[in-house]
Protein backbone atom coordinates (compact mmCIF):
# COMPACT_ATOMS: atom_id res chain seq x y z
CA UNK A 1 0.00 0.00 0.00
CA UNK A 2 1.32 3.34 -1.03
CA UNK A 3 0.65 6.46 1.02
CA UNK A 4 0.89 9.84 -0.52
CA UNK A 5 2.15 12.72 1.56
CA UNK A 6 -1.31 14.16 2.27
CA UNK A 7 -2.69 10.82 3.55
CA UNK A 8 0.41 10.27 5.66
CA UNK A 9 0.07 13.66 7.38
CA UNK A 10 -3.66 13.08 7.91
CA UNK A 11 -2.94 9.76 9.62
CA UNK A 12 -0.29 11.34 11.84
CA UNK A 13 -2.78 14.03 12.91
CA UNK A 14 -5.42 11.41 13.71
CA UNK A 15 -2.96 9.45 15.85
CA UNK A 16 -1.86 12.64 17.66
CA UNK A 17 -5.49 13.65 18.33
CA UNK A 18 -6.25 10.17 19.67
CA UNK A 19 -3.30 10.32 22.08
CA UNK A 20 -4.40 13.78 23.28
CA UNK A 21 -7.97 12.51 23.79
CA UNK A 22 -6.70 9.64 25.95
CA UNK A 23 -4.76 12.09 28.16
CA UNK A 24 -7.72 14.46 28.46
CA UNK A 25 -9.99 11.57 29.40
CA UNK A 26 -7.49 10.34 31.98
CA UNK A 27 -7.23 13.84 33.56
CA UNK A 28 -11.01 14.20 33.58
CA UNK A 29 -11.51 10.88 35.35
CA UNK A 30 -9.15 11.79 38.17
CA UNK A 31 -10.84 15.13 38.87
CA UNK A 32 -13.03 15.31 41.94
CA UNK A 33 -16.72 15.95 41.59
CA UNK A 34 -17.66 17.31 44.97
CA UNK A 35 -21.17 18.36 44.03
CA UNK A 36 -22.87 15.28 45.44
CA UNK A 37 -20.70 14.64 48.46
CA UNK A 38 -20.95 17.91 50.40
CA UNK A 39 -22.49 17.27 53.76
CA UNK A 40 -21.88 17.01 57.47
CA UNK A 41 -19.90 13.80 57.54
CA UNK A 42 -19.77 11.60 60.65
CA UNK A 43 -16.26 10.11 60.63
CA UNK A 44 -16.79 8.03 63.77
CA UNK A 45 -15.84 7.99 67.46
CA UNK A 46 -12.95 10.30 68.29
CA UNK A 47 -11.29 7.71 70.51
CA UNK A 48 -11.32 5.17 67.68
CA UNK A 49 -8.65 7.19 65.81
CA UNK A 50 -5.05 6.42 66.71
CA UNK A 51 -2.64 9.29 67.18
CA UNK A 52 -0.17 10.05 64.41
CA UNK A 53 -2.27 8.30 61.78
CA UNK A 54 -3.99 9.33 58.56
CA UNK A 55 -7.46 8.08 57.68
CA UNK A 56 -8.77 8.45 54.12
CA UNK A 57 -12.52 9.02 53.66
CA UNK A 58 -13.11 8.62 49.94
CA UNK A 59 -16.86 9.13 50.15
CA UNK A 60 -16.35 12.36 52.09
CA UNK A 61 -13.41 13.27 49.84
CA UNK A 62 -11.10 14.16 52.71
CA UNK A 63 -8.23 12.81 54.74
CA UNK A 64 -8.62 12.88 58.51
CA UNK A 65 -5.28 13.23 60.29
CA UNK A 66 -4.92 12.72 64.02
CA UNK A 67 -1.66 14.20 65.20
CA UNK A 68 0.54 13.10 68.08
CA UNK A 69 -1.08 15.58 70.52
CA UNK A 70 -4.55 14.22 69.66
CA UNK A 71 -5.59 17.11 67.41
CA UNK A 72 -7.66 16.38 64.31
CA UNK A 73 -7.28 18.01 60.88
CA UNK A 74 -9.58 17.21 57.91
CA UNK A 75 -7.88 17.99 54.59
CA UNK A 76 -9.54 17.95 51.19
CA UNK A 77 -8.34 15.35 48.68
CA UNK A 78 -8.49 18.02 45.94
CA UNK A 79 -5.16 19.36 44.80
CA UNK A 80 -5.16 23.16 44.96
CA UNK A 81 -3.54 23.37 41.53
CA UNK A 82 -6.27 22.04 39.22
CA UNK A 83 -8.31 19.76 41.45
CA UNK A 84 -6.95 16.28 40.90
CA UNK A 85 -7.22 13.80 43.77
CA UNK A 86 -4.00 13.64 45.77
CA UNK A 87 -2.57 10.39 47.12
CA UNK A 88 -1.26 9.86 50.62
CA UNK A 89 2.48 9.26 50.68
CA UNK A 90 3.12 6.66 53.38
CA UNK A 91 6.87 7.35 53.39
CA UNK A 92 6.64 11.10 54.06
CA UNK A 93 3.24 11.23 55.73
CA UNK A 94 2.30 13.89 53.18
CA UNK A 95 0.50 13.85 49.85
CA UNK A 96 1.43 13.66 46.16
CA UNK A 97 -0.63 14.82 43.22
CA UNK A 98 -0.48 12.41 40.28
CA UNK A 99 -1.43 15.02 37.68
CA UNK A 100 1.40 17.57 37.74
CA UNK A 101 3.53 16.31 40.65
CA UNK A 102 2.72 18.83 43.39
CA UNK A 103 3.74 17.57 46.81
CA UNK A 104 2.30 18.46 50.21
CA UNK A 105 3.54 17.78 53.73
CA UNK A 106 1.55 16.10 56.51
CA UNK A 107 -0.16 19.42 57.30
CA UNK A 108 -1.18 19.81 53.65
CA UNK A 109 1.35 22.59 53.01
CA UNK A 110 2.99 22.81 49.57
CA UNK A 111 6.43 21.23 49.31
CA UNK A 112 6.69 21.49 45.55
CA UNK A 113 4.77 23.35 42.82
CA UNK A 114 2.81 23.86 40.66
CA UNK A 115 0.29 24.06 43.56
CA UNK A 116 0.78 27.34 45.38
CA UNK A 117 -1.37 26.95 48.47
CA UNK A 118 -2.05 24.22 51.03
CA UNK A 119 -4.82 21.67 50.73
CA UNK A 120 -8.15 23.12 51.84
CA UNK A 121 -9.42 21.99 55.22
CA UNK A 122 -12.92 21.30 56.51
CA UNK A 123 -14.29 22.46 59.88
CA UNK A 124 -14.50 19.69 62.47
CA UNK A 125 -16.75 19.54 65.50
CA UNK A 126 -16.83 16.79 68.07
CA UNK A 127 -20.26 16.08 69.45
CA UNK A 128 -21.03 13.25 71.87
CA UNK A 129 -17.62 11.81 71.08
CA UNK A 130 -18.29 11.71 67.32
CA UNK A 131 -16.01 13.48 64.85
CA UNK A 132 -18.18 15.52 62.46
CA UNK A 133 -16.53 16.95 59.35
CA UNK A 134 -18.40 19.72 57.54
CA UNK A 135 -17.56 19.05 53.89
CA UNK A 136 -19.95 21.84 52.86
CA UNK A 137 -17.46 24.47 53.97
CA UNK A 138 -13.94 24.04 52.54
CA UNK A 139 -11.55 26.56 54.09
CA UNK A 140 -8.73 28.01 52.00
CA UNK A 141 -5.56 28.80 53.92
CA UNK A 142 -2.11 30.17 53.24
CA UNK A 143 -0.29 27.95 55.74
CA UNK A 144 -0.80 25.54 58.61
CA UNK A 145 -1.09 26.69 62.19
CA UNK A 146 -2.08 24.84 65.32
CA UNK A 147 -5.38 26.72 65.65
CA UNK A 148 -6.63 24.62 62.70
CA UNK A 149 -6.64 21.49 64.88
CA UNK A 150 -9.74 20.29 66.71
CA UNK A 151 -9.51 18.39 70.01
CA UNK A 152 -11.93 15.95 71.59
S1 LIG B 1 -3.73 19.22 39.75
FE1 LIG B 1 -2.29 18.68 41.25
S2 LIG B 1 -0.42 19.39 40.52
FE2 LIG B 1 -1.84 19.95 39.01
Short synopsis of the structure:
This protein is an alpha+beta fold. It has one helix spanning 5-30; strands at residues 40-45, 53-57, 62-66, 72-76, 87-88, 95-96, 103-104, 110-112, 121-122, 124-127, 130-134.
Task: Write up this protein.
The structure is a single chain. This protein has 152 residues and is α+β, with helices and mostly antiparallel strands. It folds into 2 domains: 1-30; 40-148, Rieske [2Fe-2S] iron-sulphur domain (Rieske Iron-sulfur Protein), CATH 2.102.10.10. 17% of the residues lie in helices and 27% in strands. It contains 1 helix and 11 strands, in the order H-E-E-E-E-E-E-E-E-E-E-E. The protein has one helix spanning 5-30, and strands spanning 40-45, 53-57, 62-66, 72-76, 87-88, 95-96, 103-104, 110-112, 121-122, 124-127, 130-134. Strands 2-3-4-9 form a 4-stranded antiparallel beta sheet, with no helix packed on it. A 4-stranded antiparallel beta sheet has the order 5-6-7-8, with no helix packed on it. Strand 5 and strand 6 (95-96) form a beta hairpin. The N and C termini lie far apart (74 Å). The model is unreliable at 16-36 (pLDDT under 50). Bound molecules: FE2/S2 (inorganic) cluster. Residues 79, 81-84, 97, 99-100, 102, 114-115 line the site of FE2/S2 (inorganic) cluster. One of its GO terms (molecular function) is 2 iron, 2 sulfur cluster binding. One of its GO terms (cellular component) is membrane. Keywords: 2Fe-2S, Disulfide bond, Iron, Iron-sulfur, Metal-binding. Its cofactor is [2Fe-2S] cluster.
